[in-house]
Amino acid sequence: MPKYIGVTIGPIIKTIMKARKTRELFAASYIFSYIMKKIIIEFKKREFILPHFDSDGIETKKYEIGIFPDRMIFEASEGDFDHLQEVIENILQDISSEILLHMRRRLKEHLQIHTVNIEDKRTTYNALDVKEISNYLSNYFKIYFCEIENKKDYKDINEIVNSYLDSLELQEKFVPKETCDFLADFFYYVNHSFIMKDAFDKKLSFPSIPEIAMHELNLPKSFFKFDDDTKIYDDVEREFKNFKQYHKYIAIICADADSMGKTIEDLNENKDFLNLSSVLYEFAIKANEKIKENGGVTIYAGGDDLFFFAPIVSKNKNVIQIIYDLKEIFKELIKEKLGKRKVKPTLSFGLSISYYKYPMNEALDISNDLLHLAKSMKERKDSEPDKKKKNSFAFRVLKHSGKSYEGCFCFDSREYSDIKNILCGTNAVNLPEKTINSLIYKLSQHKTMLMNIGSDKTRLENFFKNNFNEEIHTDTEQYIYKISDFTYEMIVSKYYDKNNKENNLRIEYICSVLRLLNFLQGGN
Q: By residue range, what is the domain housing residue 303?
């Protein structure tokens, strides 16, 4: 009976928490993909159940993203299980050598690591032996693997192997206290390292938050030669008249596939399982292309997870449009590869927009929390209990003042279609900031009445006509009608608590979309 090996790697969250800058975050994520790729290369002639990859040129191909997920399963040949341990040791040994050489070279350039005295740090790394770093990495990385026998039922193999790997991941490792946190130091200095050379063809440094946020301005590299973000913004704001408030903000987006468990349960043949694996691989490639095309940078795109930074607006597209484009790419790949199936995965998103000075890890936590909110979106029906709809996106804009606004919408809903028409494309709503503020004020002032009359479209339209009938609104009448239609769809929506007339969540979400509209237009 054939044997199969499963591999898992960690600790991912603990490692990502070391990051304080975008380059560190990329490196903290990419190093796991790098290790998995090196393992795959050693066993690439085996039959892999997951992940999907192109074996031709895998050694030299520049993926630009951490495309290899934290788990793999492949059909093993005799002796592979014992050989795997040796392969892992050799990979960690090679990484240790690369880290030591890179750190010695960079420290020689008289750079600073946080507030640590550079002389002490240089002395430490010059005195280090590669074995010390290798021992540290061996103790730090949780790389576990198991082997099973199976009759070649991929769905069954996936379930059994993942169950074993889940148990193995519960094992903790003791990491002795070292003079240096070798990984944290390396991530800080990752530019021009073996990680960047492995990921990219020409780019050997990772863009900072200001570089990403101001992509629309097409600034020369000379603006970003220092790590002082405040100085960068002062210089740009002084010299560029087309600078807008949203250039001081960054979008952090987390995405995750919905109903993957049910999708796998619905697969019957091995080829279906391989097709699903192929979908995730192709989506990662195409998603990165779309994100890069619009000025964003992908931190991770492996398995059914996606994590990236993006400018608020770039190339006449805002981040809401990018999210929609990614959702459509995923939808088309599922349709192409899985055909007409009863159960199909969808994609949910969490979007955090925050000021450039806001702590990056906290903004990332918010994005993850919003993703969980989106994945718990429920469709309410009188005839059956509430059930999770997912297939949604949630956003929160946290302003520099400390104020915030947010919303959560299902992609299948009519109100989301209205949001897209209001915020995106050539027909997007274009309202003066004064009019938007007036709309927000009127909706907030009369929210109780609106919840009572809002399900009657004629009465709701009359409300907007009566409150926005001054001469100054003549030029924006068509846009105000769009807001009226959106308000109607929100009030009659089946995705919010329709039984509680005093629930103001719907009106708050409408106001959030209006505030987001003003922000995307360059307002405060």
A: 207-412
